[in-house]
Specification:
The chain has about 120 residues and is mainly β. It has 2 domains: about 60 residues, no CATH class; about 55 residues, N-terminal domain of TfIIb. Helix content is about 5%, strand content about 60%. The strands form 3 sheets. A 6-stranded antiparallel β-sheet has the order 8-9-10-11-12-13, with no helix packed on it. A 5-stranded antiparallel β-sheet has the order 3-4-5-6-7, with no helix packed on it. A hairpin with a 5-residue loop joins β3 and β4. The two termini are about 30 Å apart.
């Protein structure tokens, strides 16, 4: 949850139907523009149509949703990877890929937004 200028909204990292990454925050939407080292710059989608010059900058720890080599859903946050563990509608629990080695770290997402983190990595 991010609060800026009195607006409180969750940030959603999503993909367009063409597979391009986007960020949604409240009524605002940003497309990936540039990545240098650990920072990524995002441009407002209204830039071309209405001249909006709003930008967002994220630093490396954005969640990246994707597929494992075997085709299973995963979330990557920095150096940590999580496998899909259980699903209840739009609510999904993800556990660390090292769970079988005793790692208790897990996250919960609702509509691709991280709403809860549990445990700590032991590796």
């Amino acid at each position: 949850m991010v609060v800026f200028l009195g607006i409180s909204a969750a940030i959603k990292f999503e993909m367009t139907k063409f597979g391009n990454p986007t960020i949604s925050w409240g009524n605002y939407r940003f497309i990936k523009k540039l990545t240098r080292r650990m920072k990524t710059w995002w441009e407002c989608t209204a830039r071309k149509s209405s001249g909006c010059r709003c930008v967002a900058v994220t630093v490396d720890n954005q969640p990246k949703f994707g597929l494992s080599q075997r085709g299973n859903l995963i979330v990557q946050i920095g150096d940590w990877r999580f496998n899909k563990h259980a699903c209840w509608g739009s609510k999904v629990r993800w556990t660390c890929i090292k769970k079988k080695y005793g790692c208790t770290a897990a996250i919960t997402t609702v509509d691709n937004v991280i709403v809860k983190t549990l445990g700590k990595h032991n590796h």
